[in-house]
Protein 1
Amino acid sequence: MEKQIPVASRASNIEYAIRDVVVPAAILEEQGHQILKLNIGDPSAYPGLPTPQHMVDAYVHALQKGMNGYSPSYGLPELRKAIARDEVQKGWDAKDSDVYVCHGVTEALQIVFASILNQGDTVLAPGPHYPPYMAYPQMYGATTVEYKLKPDDGWKLDIDDIESKMNDSVRLLVLINPNNPCGSVAGAEEVNRVLAIAERWPNCIVVADEIYDGLDFTGEHVSIASLSSSVPVFVLNGVSKVFYAPGWRIGYLAIHDPTNRLIEVRDGIERLLRSRLCASTPAQYGYLAGLESDRSWMAAYSSKVVAQRNLCIERISSIEGIEVESSGGAFYMFVRLTDPKWADNDKKFVLELLHEEHVLFVHGSGFSPTLGKGHFRLVYLPEINVLNDAFDRVERFLLRHRSA
Ligand SMILES: Cc1ncc(COP(=O)(O)O)c(C=O)c1O
């Protein structure tokens, strides 16, 4: 092979477990095998959960009306207004000017990290966590440290662990609520305890990733910003999950700055946003229609998802070799492998299951090498017959490979 031109380590260090396991699955598909995919948190990849028609119509209408140009860098004014109104409903005093529309929460995260992190800074994020919280901060010379979610107590936040890991270098304290990959939901009591800790560290901002907030099946979910009277909060949300349109790539960052300490940070964020021009213009109209229209359709979607969740819990409880803490939100559960053979090598479990039984999950260690180990993430968006088929295959596989 020719001597290769070197790649930057910030790129070669990136891992995204959720899509990495798709590579061997695609090879099997090319060979003609059909794979049961329980790996990707994209509702539109599964039947029965389409993007609502009125939102699609608004997107199409925007295209037909020629809304194909650049739009304002911080978002369409009417969309910023609708998002602020939505956040006010969730309990805090959001203004249109607090809202910045991005290409999904993913872009908002990159903007947040780029505007806050310097060499030597720390991001304190839950373990296990959604992978970009580990992947991106290192691009800025920062490090992600994980605080524990309690594996035997519904993946609740380990408040003592958070407290013990706080120091002056922690610039961002991340809450993903409901959580990906665990499906856990933190209620007001837990959130208040985290805010009380953050309050003692004046350079720390709380990142509230609430992209699954409308998929809370416990009734416990609260807006983190709504509980904060002094700690600054970056609220992240968008069209991907609750409005079932992840491919539109529209999300937002809303800044709650109750004590006015983010004037310089806001300026930095706005500069970054201007330098990347704008988010997709017609897609913003689609999201606007979702926010401004009746949302009664969501109840039927949620009850379908809950029925699928319940089926998974029932099936898992009857299969030897796996167990799970109930999932209170999002559409994930983080399933524990109890046989030591797999508990020590969850990636091997996922890959062998894929090759032998053609069922695809994501290995838990992809969400945290230590705190996710011995688990796999299951997405309960497929229909009940597919889930049942997948569990039949998992059961067969575990039986075949049971440790002596
Ligand atoms: C916790 C969390 N945040 C953000 C995202 C990505 O959001 P977006 O599609 O808005 O970029 C995901 C996607 O799975 C997620 O699980």
Protein 2
Amino acid sequence: MQNVKLNCGIEMPIIGYGVYLVDPSVTERCVLEALSVGYRSLDTAQYYENEAMVGSAVRKSGIPRDEVFITSKLCQSRPTYAQAMENVKGSLRRMRLDYLDLMLIHWPMGNDSEIWAAFEDLVKEGYIRSIGVSNFYPAQFDKLVREASIIPAVNQIETHVFYQQRPMMAKMADAGTAVESWGPLAEGLNGIFTNPVLTEVGAAHGKSAAQVALRFLTQQGIIVIPKSVHKERMIQNLETLDFDLSQEEMAAIRSLDTGHNLEGWPSDALKYNPNTV
Ligand SMILES: NC(=O)c1ccc[n+]([C@@H]2O[C@H](COP(=O)([O-])OP(=O)(O)OC[C@H]3O[C@@H](n4cnc5c(N)ncnc54)[C@H](OP(=O)(O)O)[C@@H]3O)[C@@H](O)[C@H]2O)c1
């Protein structure tokens, strides 16, 4: 597995397994399957209500804890410093883990610097190895960084062939923050799996449109966390680092960028209105 070196020196697999909308009743089975086919990075969140099942799957897998990179995300409206400390410890209790590899603020909560101060102290105390943000656009990102001691290791944002986020890529590269794509398969929307450009490029490599869409991201160093409840698709999504797209193929896929997100989240108002930071 190829890794991305985060700005704190920690290595994170470039492909992980995401569990948004994986029903808690099947999460343990899905995570065990994902681990069995080779995933070593898992992305959950308090909001998904399946943290506990991710933790139990890791234990049941028998894979040593230090060989699996585990991410969760804080979801609490404007917690105080003390509440944010307790919030993260709550994730650890639910998952029955001693530490998390990466903890994110799931989206701007309004008092992000106060949450961040708690995250920084949790790193010092050994509860979290690295910290980052999600759905932070320029205004919130800049405000957080101005008051931070630790620069976010990761910004997890909607990124896929139809919303390529080129301005954010440049901004995050300048900041030294890795971009992690959520919805790397555009959540299955917009006809991605039968898109003619992706299908044609895939045919040249013996790969599916989904595999080309993921390779387009990882070839740019973007971390991806595709979700599937089907084992054969988990395997397909993992088998995407063994081919390279040519300059011409990359250019053809770049032309699919609409410049818009697909589901209106986060809204443009949240992204750019300085009153929301
Ligand atoms: N930070 C945030 O705000 C945020 C928001 C959304 C998601 N996320 C994270 O990002 C992860 C990935 O995003 P996502 O789950 O929204 O969407 P996604 O991974 O882009 O797409 C998932 C959809 O694609 C289907 N699929 C997966 N692999 C496929 C393949 N090889 N061929 C055909 N269909 C395939 C899945 O169906 P089946 O399951 O039926 O196979 C599912 O409907 C999440 O699980 C979560 O961890 C974070």
